[in-house]
Amino acid sequence: xxxxxxxxxxxxxxxxxxxxxxxxxxxxxxxxxxxxxxxxxxxxxxxxxxxxxxxxxxxxxxxxxxxxxxxxxxxxxxxxxxxxxxxxxxxxxxxxxxxxxxxxxxxxxxxx
Amino acid sequence: xxxxxxxxxxxxxxxxxxxxxxxxxxxxxxxxxxxxxxxxxxxxxxxxxxxxxxxxxxxxxxxxxxxxxxxxxxxxxxxxxxxxxxxxxxxxxxxxxxxxxxxxxxxxxxxxxxxxxxxxxxxxxxxxxxxxxxxxxxxxxxxxxxxxxxxxxxxxxxxxxxxxxxxxxxxxxxxxxxxxxxxxxxxxxxxxxxxxxxxxxxxxxxxxxxxxxxxxxxxxxxxxxxxxxxxxxxxxxxxxxxxxxxxxxxxxxxxxxxxxxxxxxxxxxxxxxxxxxxxxxxxxxxxxxxxxxxxxxxxxxxxxxxxxxxxxxxxxxxxxxxxxxxxxxxxxxxxxxxxxxxxxxxxxxxxxxxxxxxxxxxxxxxxxxxxxxxxxxxxxxxxxxxxxxxxxxxxxxxxxxxxxxxxxxxxxxxxxxxxxxxxxxxxxxxxxxxxxx
Lengths: 112, 437
Description:
The complex is a heterodimer of chains A (about 110) and B (about 425).
Chain A: E1 2-8, H1 13-23, E2 29-35, E3 42-46, E4 49-53, E5 56-65, H2 70-81, E6 89-95
Antiparallel strand pairs in A: 1-5, 1-6, 2-5, 3-4
Helix pairs in contact in A: 1-2
Chain B: H1 2-19, H2 31-57, H3 65-92, E1 115-116, E2 119-123, H4 124-142, H5 152-174, H6 179-182, H7 191-209, H8 225-244, H9 252-280, H10 285-299, H11 308-333, H12 341-359, H13 362-365, H14 381-412, H15 419-424, H16 426-431
Antiparallel strand pairs in B: 1-2
Helix pairs in contact in B: 2-3, 2-4, 2-8, 3-4, 3-5, 4-5, 4-7, 5-7, 5-14, 7-12, 7-14, 8-9, 8-10, 9-10, 9-11, 10-11, 10-12, 11-12, 12-14
């Protein structure tokens, strides 16, 4: 099983969700994060006090899928999240050792 | 242009005066005045609860939001109880030029029919209550200068001591028949008593307590300016009671005060925002509300003495002067007046108190028994002198009284939280509460 972690622009979340849904991936975990890569932050000014804000809001989408689906899922996420502008985000793939469904106790791919 | 407007104002006021029944001479409770002043009292309390609480808490960091609100609530409780116990008596009783009277401690002697000589068409109890709301907001204002780093116990004790040492004497001198009133100082609703006092006390406290951790280096950005805007809205609307109600009765003078007040807020917002737009490229919502509050503070002493266009002009000047006081001046000198109590209220109060002496228009404050107060533009140079003396006396006594109050508080409970508490945030450290994720 593979954990696919995608950091995307927040407004792209729904496109990513819809595209995964079409692939048969019916669950995910989403977190609001902030970060930066090549995309610069911005400056805020409050009554003359200037603050450089380096971090940009992003959304992290995590899905765990069977090994054979990983490449498809990565491609689908990328297609849904890309805009061509700096700040589109990244996708990471890592290995998952075990998985369990809490309600039934199922494990492995049956838990996904 | 001024002379014809003055004549127009005079004509208007004369028409109003001839239409109105005999004013002021009879001390008798008037139901219309009483109803209006109950509404005004309510509006001014709203300015603190929750107006100032929201205005301030939106500008601090999330970890201090609840603590900042607690200061407004605590100030209301502490100051109201002490005003009832002795504040009202010391401020508005007695014939002393400097010291007030002791005959209304715990409001003893105020009966159902009692009337104060300072507001002779409403119940004395109501006059007391109205003045109480002024004392409350003045003390609450000071907290903004030392936001994010003062102990709650210190702030509560400070409110009590400062009320006694600074606010009450000042109110007596300016409004309670004391020596500044006898000198001819005009201060309709509190340019000196409220705004200069709060601003100068704030600056004094900010200098003594010291800058926030990370000031100038870390991100101290506001947590939620939408709350600040809501609070500013309550302040703006409430000010109709603050300045309008200072007429102490319903009528045209209250309306003139309200209109001058509103135009001052609008002009202040426009000018501050305009300066920001030019200097920084973007007009901020914080700039809009700050400019409005600057205008509101500046017009306060003049509101019942001037014409509406004076109000707009005073507001515009306040928007400009207070903008620079809160940005350039503050950064040049390096003090951490966190919520710009001095930059907005202190500087605005000084400006407005002086300008009241410039723009005072006799027709506005004239009554059946008095000729009204004229300012510089109507040929009365002496008024500006009286205003200047009022400003200097207020500033000097405020610095002295504030310094003494802070020294006592520091000796008894300590002024500032520990560095660890400041890091953790006052909500959790002082109150055991958190805003949540």
